[in-house]
Amino acid sequence: MLSGGLRGALAPGRVASGGRRAAAPHAQCPHTDGATSVSGSHLALDPLPCSTSYHRSRSSCGASTSSSSGSGSASSLAGGIAVPPATLTKSAVRRTSSHNSVIVHDLRLKLGSRDVKRPVLQGVDLQVRRGSLHMLLGPNGCGKSTLLKVLGGLLVPDSGLIDADQPSGFVFQNPDHQVVMPTVAADVAFGLGRYVLTEEEVSAAVRSSLRLVNMEDFMYRATHTLSGGQRQRVAIAGALAEDPKLLLLDELTTFLDREDQFGVLGAVKNITSERQDVTAIWVTHRFEELQFADAASYMENGRVVFTGTPDEAKAYMRKLGAPV
Ligand SMILES: Nc1ncnc2c1ncn2[C@@H]1O[C@H](COP(=O)(O)OP(=O)(O)OP(=O)(O)O)[C@@H](O)[C@H]1O
Fold this sequence. Notes:
By secondary structure, this protein is α/β, with parallel strands linked by helices. Among the domains are: 96-166 and 247-258 and 281-323, Rossmann fold (3-Layer(aba) Sandwich), CATH 3.40.50; 169-244, no CATH class. The chain has helices at residues 4-9, 61-67, 144-151, 184-189, 199-212, 228-241, 258-274, 310-319; strands at 42-45, 75-76, 82-83, 100-112, 117-129, 133-137, 159-164, 168-171, 246-250, 279-283, 295-300, 303-308. The protein has a six-stranded mixed β-sheet, with helices on both faces. The protein is globular, with a radius of gyration of 19 Å. The termini are far apart. 49% of the residues are buried. The structure holds adenosine-5'-triphosphate.
């Protein structure tokens, strides 16, 4: 039996709000109408922004792949973001052709105003093994979040090459901006309102997503009664419910105490251990989190300057004088 809130989340035509996890807005080329088509998961970017080669599905963009063959036009959210209509059945799943879920080469992006732009990503090279928990560290402003946004389709790079598993799901730092429904089950089901699914399918997706983040017992709890870490795990479950292959997790533990911090980390570790087709990229400043990682990269000035095991990463950062 589904809760009233969960039923509400299944209402036809329901769309996820912009910026919410797993419903990341598209990196939409202004020369297209938002009905993004896919020309392959391998994305080669011309030096010119918005080249015609930039057509791929990511995050909820994966769903828009179906929309090109489905009925109806994309709905538009308040922020001007195109989202697929509620007639979709499933997000498009694409894998890279190697054992890596992410391959990035010479990625470049300038940001700023139209007149004054400064380079933020300055030739990023990165490879992330499929099924791993890969941590991304580096000083403030080095480009970690920007890289994550490019991988999630929130920003369009100027040039470079991206080959990444799709669809992706994004979870941000502050769970209060992402957990919006009154009950846990309804919140996890929220993004699924965009697809044509039976109540049983939604219920199964919600339950299995909550199980992966160790929150199954909280299914009918009121979200306002949860701790910060529990809310963060609900946000991750909401992303998981849409079956992403790449989880992009941006400083999820910043506002959490130690117990909640390790609860969230344990949940993400559990996801990548149980689901070998799901890869997590975890941006953090907290060195103690490295013990959960399978691998780590260190960024400086818009580039990845080191990638290795967690121990190698610690040794590298110690050499830089970090208190690791
Ligand atoms: N939309 C934007 N316009 C202009 N500059 C931007 C924009 N977004 C980010 N930047 C700049 O790009 C640089 C990289 O920002 P980013 O948020 O990616 O860094 P970060 O490594 O995640 O930092 P932190 O660890 O502090 O979160 C910063 O100097 C930031 O001010």
